[in-house]
Amino acid sequence: MTSSGSTFKAPAPDLIARFAAIVGADNAIVEAHEQAPYLVEWRDLYMGRTPLILKPATTEEVSRILALANAEGIAVVAQGGNTGLVGGQIPDESGTEILLSLKRLNRVRAIDPAGTTITVEAGVTLHAVQEATRTAGRLFPLSLASEGSATIGGNLATNAGGVAVLSYGTARALTLGLEVVLADGTVWDGLRALKKDNTGYDLRDLFVGSEGTLGIITAATLKLFPEPGERATAFVALPNLEALLPFFQSAEAQAGAALTAFEFMSGPLLEFVLRHIPGTRRPLEAQAPWYVLVEISGASAGRATQILDGFLADALASGLVSDAVVASSLQQAADLWRLRESASEAQKGEGGSIKHDISVPVARIPEFLVAAANVVERVCAGAHPVPFGHFGDGNVHYNISQPEGFDKAAFLAKWDEMARAVHDVVVSLGGSISAEHGIGRLKVDELARVKSPVEIELMRRIKSALDPKGILNPGRVVR
Fold first, then answer.
1. CATH classification at residue 144
2. What share of the chain in percent tops pLDDT 70?
3. Are residues 211 and 240 in the same domain?
4. Are 86 and 186 found together in one domain?
5. 466 lies in a domain?
6. What's the pLDDT at 162?
7. 107 FRET partner, CA 20 to 30 A, in 91, 177, 353, 450?
8. Is 310 inside a domain boundary?
């Protein structure tokens, strides 16, 4: 795991006072015990230090903070809900980087049901956006297990994916316009609600996915959609890995655009969930090596259920599916989704876990799973791959739990070796080492290893042009 290796100076007491004056003393945190929740990544992979945490409430305050930081050469790390999984939101161990928490930028600025847009500030949680749009009779489809804490700014900074990418695309595809504060404090107001704007370079796409290294997103205008009239959900058991791809192809062929989720998980991972997540229960009588959670959405009542029942019947008859349960109520659907959404949390109960967020072409996912299992056994005999993910967009969360009785620290010490081995398989199949979590600190060296020199140099030029002093999230994404 990579350290950002900051070479910046810590702000002197008088400069800390100047920063604090921008947000007010109550929103400038210097006491270690009050800072603690902001400085630990939820998997405990990164625990940082900072001389100061600032909690601005307006874009103007963010602008003034960055203008001062840029003038004085102070590094700034942006943080939303602190749900990131690659360490990008945690200050490093040097104690020189100040932390900018965006949670107080939490207003819904406007919602336009007729125009199918909503404009929100960066600190609004994903769940709050979903609720606001639902109240207005619309749908914001981005959905993550961490949506109660994850903020829109963080979602856009990492180009989050989630479980609805198959139909609606990533956070990038859901973004129409942005408001961004640049490294020198300049504010770019790009909060346009246009679905077509072909006027030069697409600045919006430059900042989405940049992980706070090029500018800090303070607000966004997002796309909304009609609320589906019906959702039909099923949890399906597959007899073997070979059935996974043809079952997806059958579902896609018969459901078309109505197929809004196709989430897969390994049999051992479901056992982890049942063992460690209170209130969960086995959805099907017999165990299986692989499971799929399928969701069909329809505009009219009854249509989604009809489609789901049709292709499940075909799959059962052909042997692609060994068993299935269809939710008969909203609560049953929520219970089935909980099995999938608890996958990451459940792994904590099994000790050390080495995690990978990768993507490969959809047709090569089974090939990847076989090849990756072989390299895992080579790196650490007896380790348990427990993959899951968004099959329809090629995104596999390839997580590996420690062998029984193995020392957790010794297993986690194999992280870099394991990651390199798994990533080599990914690259050989034409895939990506990060599908939706970003690069952060965790993968910055791996990115330089697997990207072409031309790509890395272009990224460095963009970083240098927009942040010449390198104060924004230094050591993340690209050095």
1. 3.30.465.10
2. 99
3. no
4. no
5. no
6. 87
7. 91
8. yes
Angle at 267 between CA 354 and CA 381, to 5 degrees: 45
- For 137-164, the pLDDT digits (tens) are 999 999 988 899 999 999 999 999 989 8
Adjacent-strand bridge partners of 96: none
Q: How far apart are CA 317 and CA 314, in angstroms?
A: 5
449 phi and psi, to 5 degrees? -75, -40
| Final residue of a structural domain among 320, 345, 370 | 345
CB of 479 within 8 A of CB of 83? no
Length of the chain in terms of residues written:
479
Q: Which residues contact 167 (CB under 8 A, 6 or more apart)?
A: 141, 257, 259, 260, 261, 297
Model pLDDT, residue 249? 96
pLDDT at position 434 is 95
Phi, psi values for residue 99, rounded to 5°: -105, 130
Structure tokens at 122: 């960066």
Domain hosting residue 87, numbered range: 13-104
Long-range contacts of 381-386 (CB under 8 A, 24+ apart): 382/406, 383/354, 383/411, 384/268, 384/350, 385/266, 386/265, 386/266, 386/268, 386/269, 386/272, 386/343, 386/347
Query: Hey, what's the torsion of the CAs at 97, 451, 86, 70, to 10 degrees?
Result: 20
DSSP-assigned letter for residue 184: T
Q: Cα separation of 105 and 65, whole Å? A: 14
pLDDT category of residue 6 using cuts at 50, 70 and 90:
low
pTM of the model: 0.92
Q: Is pLDDT at 2 greater than 70 in this prediction?
A: no
Q: Residue 198 domain-assigned?
A: yes
Give the torsion through C-alpha atoms of 54, 55, 60, 62, to 10 deg. Answer: 50
Residue 299, pLDDT above cutoff 80: no
Q: What is the pLDDT of residue 1?
A: 53
What tokens appear for 125 in the block? 């949680």
| Residue 389 three-state SS | strand
Is the distance from CB of 224 to CB of 174 less than 8 angstroms?
Answer: no
Q: Give 44's contacts (C-beta < 8 A, 6+ positions apart).
A: none
